[in-house]
Specification:
Strand content: 25-35%
CATH architecture of the largest domain: 3-Layer(aba) Sandwich
CATH class of the largest domain: Alpha Beta
CATH topology of the largest domain: Rossmann fold
Strand order of the largest sheet: 17-16-15-14-10-13-12-11-18
Shape: globular
Number of helices: 11
CATH superfamily of the largest domain: NAD(P)-binding Rossmann-like Domain
Order of helices and strands: EEHEEHEHEHEHEHEHEHHEEEEEEEHHE
Radius of gyration: 22 Å
Number of strands: 18
Number of domains: 2
Largest sheet: 9 strands, mixed
Length: 381
């Protein structure tokens, strides 16, 4: 995290963070401890406002570049740069963040601007290459979700982060959606007993929109948007290793009406995940659903069932010899906790909540589901 402009000298960071999370405050002990434990160290910042942030990608879809910079600033960090290959987007960044520097490429931004943390907010197939360029330049990196398209891309980024002593995380902001936080609270309280199975589903009957997410090669497929969110929810609920993945896909109905043609995403993807504890998860994402089901998640337990979406939760519980029904609103999202945790990790050495290894689990399932659908057989995880 050395300054490379020569404009301002930083005070010595207050400590050094081990990959294990333990901190050493005496720089003279670093090499002895590193040699003994065989682990590299990451320097910590004194204050969040020292962390200079930039984003790669400032597209108009959902205005995610603006969202990331605002969230970084709300966590106390300092937005200083934006890169986008579309020159029309740079004036928007300059207007929304007066004084911010703008660049036509990642390479130009890294060469000219003194950055510590970079948010990668590009189409999915560019996450890995942009993140790798930033990591190899010694920058901490947050990619948008999904982490990448393939497991191999995830592994390359994780390896680069370790090599260059950089933090790597993924913007799974829905990790803190109110609906999953409430589900975890209710289910961990024993409301429906032990989880028997989980069915996650989202569907409608309509062709894909005319944008890059409708391209299989760019987006990864129909599973890589809401499917990635739903898998991350499920991995919080099912505390067990993935054992096997079976994927099924229907293609070709909407493709003739899509500008992407043969590269159009699937019409439907259905995934079955087996976990080591015996719990199965099914994930259905479809644009051929004429009769959509209520809710997003149906969770069957030994003593009842639980359904939720972003608006409400409902539970049917067997107790006292009868059946009891309970329901309530899904609480507000606490997604602000994502960048608050990033800042706390880089300043105080607090454990990173969304680690790259955690985010890799979602991509591993999506990757295997795609391979399974193409090969016509279940695959070991």
């Amino acid at each position: 995290m050395s300054r490379n402009t020569g404009c301002t000298c930083r005070e010595r960071p207050r400590g050094y963070l081990f990959r294990s999370g333990r901190r050493c405050r005496d720089p003279r002990k670093i090499w002895a401890i590193e040699s003994r434990e065989g682990k590299r160290l990451m320097k910590l910042f004194d204050r969040a406002e020292e962390i200079r942030c930039g984003v790669v990608g400032y597209g108009a879809s959902f205005h995610m570049g603006r969202h990331h910079l605002n969230a970084m600033a709300a966590a106390g960090m300092k937005p200083v740069a934006v890169a986008d290959i579309d020159p029309a987007r740079l004036p928007a960044a300059e207007a929304e963040f007066p004084g911010i520097k703008t660049y036509p490429s990642t390479t130009a931004m890294l060469a000219d601007c003194d950055l510590d943390l970079v948010g990668v907010i590009t189409p999915h197939n560019a996450h890995a290459c942009v993140a790798l360029e930033c990591l190899e330049a010694g920058k901490h990196v947050v990619t948008e979700k999904p982490f990448a398209i393939t497991t191999e891309e995830c592994d390359a980024m994780i390896a680069a982060a370790k090599t260059h002593d950089a933090m790597l995380s993924v913007h799974h902001n829905r990790h803190w959606d109110g609906c999953i936080l409430k589900a975890l609270e209710n289910i961990r309280s024993g409301m429906i007993g032990e989880i028997v199975r989980i069915e996650a589903h989202m569907g409608s009957y309509r062709p894909p929109r005319d944008w890059w997410r409708a391209s299989k090669s760019i987006s990864g497929g129909i599973n890589y948007d809401w499917g990635a969110h739903f898998l991350e929810y499920a991995l919080q609920l099912i505390d067990s290793d993935t054992v096997e993945v079976a994927g099924f896909a229907r293609k070709g109905y909407w493709a003739p009406r899509s500008p992407w043609g043969d590269d159009a995403i699937e019409d439907e993807a259905f995934t079955v995940v087996r976990f080591a504890n015996g719990v199965p998860l099914t994930l259905l994402v479809t644009q051929l659903e004429s009769n959509p089901r209520d809710g997003w998640f149906d969770i069957t337990g030994t003593q009842g069932s639980y359904r939720f979406d972003h608006q409400r939760w409902q539970a049917m519980i067997h107790e006292d010899g009868g059946t009891v029904y309970r329901e309530g609103p899904s609480p507000a999202s606490e997604s602000w906790r994502f960048y608050r945790n990033i800042a706390a990790h880089l300043t105080r050495g607090e454990p990173l909540i969304i680690t790259a290894e955690w985010a890799r689990r979602t991509i591993r399932i999506l990757d295997l589901a795609d391979q399974s659908a193409n090969n016509g057989r279940a695959l070991p995880a």
